[in-house]
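Input/output pair, single chain:
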Amino acid sequence: MTSQEVRLCSRLLREHFGEVVEKVGTHLLRGGTQTLRSIVQGTDISVDLVKKSLCVLMQHGTCVFSPGRKGRGSPTEYQCSSNLMLKILRYPRYIYTAKTLYGDTGELIIEELLQRGHVTMSSIVKVVADRLTQNMEEGQSMDYKDVSSSFSKLVETHFIQRCPPMASAKTKADPSTPEVPTSTEPLAPESFPNCYTVPHVSLLGRGKRQLEDPEEQSVAKKARMDTENHGDEGIYWQVNFERFHLHFRDQAIVSAMSNKMDQTSGEIVRTMLRMSEVTTLPTAAYTKPLSANEIFRSLPTAYNISRQVLDQYLTLLVDDPMEFVSKAGESGGGMYSVNLQRALAKLARATLESVVQERFGSRSARIFRLLLKKKHLEQKQVEDFAMIPAKEAKDMLYTLLSQNLVQLQELPKTPDFAPSRTFYLYTVNQLSTSRMLLQNCYKAMANLIHRRLFETSNSKRLLEKSQRIEAILASLQAGGAEPEQLTEVEEMITAPEKQQLESLQLHVNKLDSAENQVDETIFLLESYIKSTASTVE
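Output:
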């Protein structure tokens, strides 16, 4: 774990959970596994607040606990995971994906799960139905069955999964003792057969509108939750982040193929990925092999292409230099699969080339691309192949070398490493360069979040005033106020204040857009590095 990762996690914790949780989480990230007492001493926070902070972190799956290393009776130890904290960056993307695939109901289900960490199905269905009912016209309400159906679809496609039981073990001293939990680390889905099994939940009725008085609303909600049992008590659900990441990866591959060739090629690759999205392991280098007949039957009806045209497209995809699609076997027309590892490597390579071009210009990008293709070249060879004057090529190579984008490898002819008898070869290590760029992305993301929070904190009073006026206008419109009254309330914000609000909104939108773009780069680089690590293992 690097300092840039810790800094970014600290920013995320502060923004989403507050300063106390941020202090506890950052202390655990920097100090590693610690007991409750050491956390209290290291953070100088009261025991009660530390316990509440740990509960928040564990509720959202970013912290795990385990028995002390000294054996039975020793203090419980806590540990935080930066990988799960960094997933907070993609919360808006998870919600938007659910909305795209399953509509408003799927969007609200994922939003509630992300907000609460893990919760029962019956509770989610009720809350989502109530929220949907609130946005409907008077006299209309959302049926619990419709929300339950959307919830089941999300489970079937593995976007939602059960919270696995804690890993447990029996004591060696007495094998007859019952199993006790040893940690909160979740079991793998393969070892938890009921991970995607939806229980039978007895839910009848429709969503209810919120009461105007918040106190009455909370009392009524608590009474309703206490008195009703639906058969799923103790069964909690959480968002399956890995499934969303596989969807993002597939979307990136399809988009790259569509941009390189055409929309039909992208749709063929999308069909191949969709047919094997549940059966292919996340760490697999290839999707499962598919025949041309299977692909033809699974293509959307909107793409009215013949079998002969499909065969031509598949041949083009196999022969394409990007090598996203591979062919295995010749019997029956052959079997086709998507080379996931090669696709991620190509996408990461395109990202590196784009970064070099944006920072150092097109000529430096030409040299960088040449080194990626030729692997090892001397300075004279770089000048000749890139067709760049010697002085400029030398300056560009040294600039890339100083930024660690290019490495210099020495090959001596003799053991004394004399410069006159040594070959100096320039090369690019794509994996190490990707790791370095990933750390730069973490740093950029932390700076963007810090800048956005700074912009909003400077205009905090103006934002609060604007929100109060909007609330007054909404209540007046609901009460049927006259236009003169509405105009009078709107004029409470002066023209300079309106201009300041518009400028603030413009800056915040730009920062949000930049955060989304940086996160896309982070996701591609993380996926490539992870796929390379799984191959090495």
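The longest strand covers residues 180-186. The CA atoms of residues 146 and 164 lie 26 Å apart.
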